[in-house]
Every structure is written in C-alpha cells, then in structure tokens.
Fold this sequence. Notes:
The chain is mainly beta and 208 residues long. Helix content is 10%, strand content 29%. Strand 4 and strand 5 form a beta hairpin.
Amino acid sequence: MADSTRGFTGRGWGGRDRRLPPGQYDTARSGGDEWPVLSVEITPTIDTDTWTFRVDGFVEHPTTWTWSEMQALPPSRYEGDIHCVTTWSRLGVTFAGVSVDTLLDIASPRPEAAFAMATSHTGYTTNLPLDDLTGGKAWVVWEADDKPLPADHGGPARLLVPHLYFWKSAKWVSGLRLMQFDEPGFWERNGYHDRGDPWREQRYQGDE
C-alpha cells in the first residue's frame, strides 16, 4: 500500500446543518472542493471489459457478474449525503447503480452469514456487518450526479454505504465475501473503528 493521502487526519469546521453529523463540515460551504479525493492507494486504470464483481463466502450461490451483466440488473438510486471520517460531508448527492439487496437475493446468504468483507481490485478491504448492507442501505454504484463515476472516486464502480463513514464505501470494488464472524479490513487493522457510524463519531478503535 502507498502512503495515505493527506486528509485522513482531518479536523472539524464551524457552521452547522441538521444533516451534518457531529464534527463534520459541509464542503460546499467551506469554499473548497465539493468532493475531496482521498485514497490510500494509487488510482488504478480498470477496463470494464475485464471488470468483475463477485459475492461468495457464506452464500448458497457464489456469483460473479461482468460489467454488462451488472448493468443489466434492476437499477437503483441513492439521493442523500455522504460523510468522510476526515470530517468533510457532501450533502445532496445522487448515485446510481444496483442495490446490494439485489445481488444478495441472487447469491442467497446462508443463515449463519453475519458480516461481509468488501474487496477492491487494488487489494483494499473493509469489513461491515451484513445488516449495514441490506434493507436498502447499500449499493454498487457507477454514476455520481448523473455522470460516470470518475476513477479517482472509485470508478468504474464503488461500494456505497452512505450511512457509515466513507472509508466503508470501498473504491474500485470487486466483491463481497460473506462471513460468519467479523474480520478487520485495512483501515480497521490500522486503528479505525470496526463500524464507523458518523452520528456516533465512531472514528477510531475505542470510540463507542
């Protein structure tokens, strides 16, 4: 892994909006980039002709989708806000892709599946409770604000889990491995919280 981009040690900013969790600032009001680019890795070039997404682990039907197969699934959109652990939030954004619920309906999680490890084509990982990926809470997205998702923001496709800090929304996503027991991903092994709820300020290990 390359050294992380400056910003993973961000700090708060004054000015409040009811949509902002504690300690967050609205990038549009700060006068800066409305969507900062933060990454622990070099931005890869991923060809959609070879791109795949796989759901495996504790599932009845391990399934791999190509780019065209993923695009053919029932579409789904998210309209709302996103929040980064470095304290920026971007309000009123729109993403388009496919609901994780649709993917899991096909793969059929086994009863003992309780967690998932999201993986990226770069090798990045992040862990999530399965409950945070189901019930209309998560997507695999390839459009942002009605435009193709830029590579530096995770294109051609990224995971989107907007109710958690954005490091959980793995860029360049390649799959979900369902697990019976929790395992830490990259940032979780390096001191970040296992879940990352912005409204509870679950930034680091030890935060409630």
